[in-house]
Amino acid sequence: MIELRAGPARALVGPDHGAALAVLETNGLPILRPLAPAREADPFAWAMNILAPFSNRVSVPIMVAGSPVALEQNLPGEAFPIHGDAFQRPWHIVGHAPDSVSLDLPAGAFGPLLYSARLSYGLRPDRLDVRLVLRNRAACVLPFGGGFHPWFPRDGGTRVAFAVAGWWPEDGRHLPATREPAALPSDLQFDRPRPLPDGWINAGFSGWSGAAEIRQGQSGLTIRLTAPGMSTVLLYSPGRESDFFCLEPVSHPVDAHALPGFPGLRFLAPGEDMILSMTMEWTRNDRSPAS
Fold first, then answer.
1. What is the DSSP letter of 289?
2. Residue 187, helix vs strand vs coil
3. Which domains does the chain have, with CATH numbers?
């Protein structure tokens, strides 16, 4: 593990576990749900995962030089390939300071998606900056995407706010139930802070402003999440009995490869990069510094 510290803030990074975060906290208060002891082998027990070279599920072959190529499943129990493989691979440390770390993912391939990546975490007393650069290493134009998969604590006082234009309801295969974004139902309008749904939700929201706010009851923290240029955010929670939820800034909706116009996917030329970034900033709920 790599430990980062900045004032009252502390983070732990696992290079051998997909460069995931194990801990992000301030004054011992969890900003993200921490990795539980002896759970390192479960990638989704970590505090945040890195998603590349795509986000979430892909149900169809991707086009490679005019021909369809199917992607193989990468997780037991999943019907479709999910979240790429950056979260399953070891990353190399290329730079480390007390409050920052840079990591490289050497050229690898998820099927025909030949790529490399560089990731940086920069910790400050009141925020974490994350930057991911993906590069197409193939000899042809290919569709790429990615994002960040943070796991936040959930309690009875948790409130969430984010502005969006519509959503993709989920079908029984955890894929979009509609080809185009649907109008938001009243119970999923998060333009003002409100509780999470009581029951299951696992859906993508379109036209996201790139900003969200999370107010926590137990810790007394407010987390402001910004992800410039990302217009999709995914919300996942099994229900009110769960002690976590996920609010995921991603570059494209679930199964974008099968949606009209391939929304959010970047078709990178050989050697071309795409950059994804996210900042999490925290304060007390009374808006005083979390120190």
1. B
2. helix
3. 2-284 (2.70.98.10)
